[in-house]
Every structure is written in structure tokens, then in C-alpha cells.
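Standup notes
- DV: blocked on the single-chain target, sequence here:
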Amino acid sequence: MAALLVTYHLQPEGGISSPGTSPPILTAISSVGGFAVGIHDARAKTRTLAVEERNRELHRTKRELEESERRYRTLAENFPNGAVALLDEELRHTLVAGRGFEKVEFSADDLRGERIQDVYSGEVLERIESNYRATLEGEPTSFELTVQGRTFEFHVHPLTDDDGDVSSILAMSQDVTERKLREQELAKRARQQEAVADLGQLALETDDVDELMEEATREVADVLDYEYCKVLDLLEADDELLLRQGVGWRDGIVGEARVSALEDDSQAAYTLEHDHPIVVEDLGTETRFGGPELLTSHDVRSGISTVIGPFDEPWGILGTHDTERREISEEDVSFVQSVANVLAEAIERQQYRSELEGLVADLEESNERLEQFAYAASHDLQEPLRMVSSYLQLVERRHADDLDEEGLEFLEFAVDGADRMRSMIDGLLKYSRVETNADPLEAVDLETVFEDAREDLQLTIAANDATITAEPLPRVQGDDRQLRQVFQNLLENAIAYSGDEPPTVRVSARRNGSDWIVTVEDDGIGIDPEYQDSVFEVFERAHDRDAGTGTGIGLALCERIVERHGGDIWLESELDEGTAVSFSLPVP
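- DV (later): unblocked, structure below
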């Protein structure tokens, strides 16, 4: 068009009407005009197509949004055990849906379109508003809230616009009441088990049963959240129970108040008649028994009571009570019964311990009397025995020439019997005085003790051509005089029962944990298995009388001395192979 205009402008005056120039110019102008119209029409059609495509896109977007909103609403409305809410910057509910309204006294419709300030009040409003406003500032929040007895767990998230500014918030709440109740129940069960374990440990550590009872009543009341707990002691007459220990009761009645064990309206009497715990959820409507004055005067309404000890020989009753009506679970009943069992075992142990201590005291007194008798008898026998020995010796000196061979043999038997009797009396005296005629235990060198014993037996060792060897011996805590007696008795036995060969005796010691084990070993004739179980008893011999001259007291005396030192003594032996006697002594 610009070129045509320039051409038109450059034509001489009247040139446009010239037949040679006007047709091309007019043709060009009309062509350009047609082209321009075509372009304009094409652009118009293009814009129409674009608008139509945009409209189709908008419709698709709208359908997708509607489908998305439908799905979202369906999801929100079916949100299980909770609710979903959208709130704007004024904290107004723009959308509320969910199934969490089934157990409260308002619905989603009551919240939809309302500000939280118009719905909630008090502490509930304060808790919700503080968290929602914090979320409007861009901070996600989580909190728990109790509404109309139900516990809800909230999770609140900020929602932003295209500029990144918070324009609304999304609040999701879940009813967690049942979960919380289960958690509380599990915690309660764990607390009950812990209480029973603690009481069991205390029962092992203390000898004071009243201390255990007091702690038990406190634990039961605390764990079950009851106001009262008591231990009733069944008195010897079996017609009354004493309030021996308890918590929650009025001052002055613990240790004084008594309850009938026989009256028909007594819960205690009813409990004693049954071998299972008695549960009372409402004493006011109870038909099995009435409330004794102890309970009614304290406004008791519910509780658990059970027998302490075996049903046929009860020691008493453990009971716990509250002033409110309580729903009592099987776990609560088992807990009270477990505590009663702990008390019963502790009482049984105390009674057993008392009986045992009494028996030990009686045995000690009896042993003391026996020791006194043995000492007195042994001491008093020495004088007539000396007289017998003296007269026998006198007969032997004066009348030996008047006696025939048989008479001399009889006299020899009598003298030998008197000597054996003297040895037995001396041994019995030593045995009876192990405890009473003893020195305090102190640090002792067994090397020195052994050498002293070997020195005492020097003549016997030489007469029998005995060889005695000893390994290094330790220091122990003991009575050196009594330990020397042990070595002396064991060495004498080893030499006496050596057989035909010259005696060989070996003494050794080894460490075994907290004890020293000392062994005296020989290669003698050994001990028949028939006698091995009784050789440490008084007057019991390791061999028959033809095999040696023992009194039957030596090993018994060794055992008593070793036991006084806190050790044990034993032997290992085989016939014709020798004997090893070992005894233990604690390491200092």
C-alpha cells in the first residue's frame, strides 16, 4: 500500500487518469485492499477460535474443580472419627465436615459459617484461638482438647495464596477418647504390677510386717485412687478383727477400731466366708450384707475386700473403699488379691522365722545343757577312772607273780580298757568345750600351726618311721589351738591306719573361690564304704576295733572345730588305696 501511494504521488497531474497508468494502480489498490480484508478476517477467525478454546478449557477446569471439590467434600464428610474444617482469616468456618460429631451435642451445621468466638467460650475458646492464630502466622500447631467429655487431637496447617501469604487454615481433629482410655488403662495396669513388685521386694527386705502393711494400704489406695484402704487382723478369739493398719480413716481409730467377724451384716464376716474377693459397687443397694459402722461412718459406697492367707486359716482381710460408686474391673480385683498374697507370704515367713528362732533357741539351750552334762559327766568320771587305773596298776605290781597267764591277760585287758576310757573321756571333754573353751578367731599362719602339731607328734612319727611332707600353707582366720588339734587328729589317724608299710602323709592347700581347701592324704588301708557316711559322728569309728585303737571322737571333734570356723570337712577313700581328708576355711 505504501508503494502504491508513493507511485500515485509521483504521477504527473492527470497521470492517474491515463489509460496506461490507472489500471495497474487501481488493480494494485484493490488487491491490497482485498488482502487487507483477508488478513483482518483471518485474524478475527483466529480470535474466535482462541476464545472458543479458552472457553472449552475453562469448562474443563470448572468440571475438574467441581470434581475435586466433590471428592474433597466426600473425603471430608467421611473423615473417620473426626472432622476437617477450613477457616478464613477471621477464623470463620467456611467448610466443616466429618464423622466426629456423633458423640458430641453439636454438628457440622452448627459450625459452618460461624466464627470460633461465636461457638466456643472459656478455656476451650482460649485454647483453640491461641493455636489457630499461631497457624495464621504461618506456624503449624498440634494440641489436644476435651470437649463435652471427649478428647480430640487437633492438627492445624496454614494455607497460602499465590503470593505466599496465609489466607486460611486447615484444621483436622480426631476423637482419641478411646485411645486415651486404653493408654490410661495400660498405664494403670503397669502401675499395679509395679506396686506389687515393689511390695514383694519390701517384703523380702524388711522384718517389720506392720511397715509392709502400712506401705501396702498406701499403694493400693494410690493406685486405685480410692479414699480408704485397711488391713484387718483376725484376733485369736476369731470373733473380731482389729483395724491394724490403714490410710484415709479418721485419726485415732487405726490400731483401735474393731469389726465383727461373725455378724450377718458385716462385710468382713461375709468376706471370711468366701474364698474369693468380694466386690461392692454400691453399698446402698447391696443385699448380701449391710455396712458396718466403720464403713457407714466414713460414707463408704464401693470397694473390694479379700482374705489374707489361706481360706481355711485366714490371717485377716485386706480391703479398699471409696465414697463414690465405682465400676470395678477384674484387673482391679486381681491387683488387690495380689497385694493380699504378698502380705500373706510375708506373714507366713515371719511366723516361720519366729518358730525357727524359737526352735533354734531351744536347740541352743538343749545343746548347752548337753554340753554341760557331757563336761560334768566326763569330768566326774575322771576321778573314779583314775582310781580304777591306780588299783589295777597296784594289783599288777604286787600280785603279778601270783597270777597265771590267763589272769595276767585279764589284767592287761582291764588296764587297756581303762586307758581307752581315759582317752574317750579326754576326747569327750574336748568335744563338749569346742564353743565354750575357745579363743577368738584371728589371723593365723597355718604353716606355724601345722609345725606345732607335727612337733607334738614327734615321738609317734619317729616310732612309726613316718614321712610327712607339706606344701606351703596359707594364712586364715581361726583359733590356732583348735586348728592344731585338727591337724594332730588327722595326722594321728593317717599314721595309725597306714598298714604294714611305713606311713607316708602329704599335706597340701589350694584356693577355691572364697575358701582355702586343706587336704591331709595318706597311702594307708583306706576306709570301707560301709563306714564312710558315719565317720564324723561321735563314737563312730572309721574301722572295726581290730584295725586300730581309735576312740571314735577324733573326726567328730575335727568336724565341730571346722564348722565353728565356718567351713566343711569331708573325705575320699578307697580300701588299700589310702584316704584324703579335706576341710575348708574361709579366705580372710
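- Follow-up: The first strand starts at residue 82 and ends at 88.
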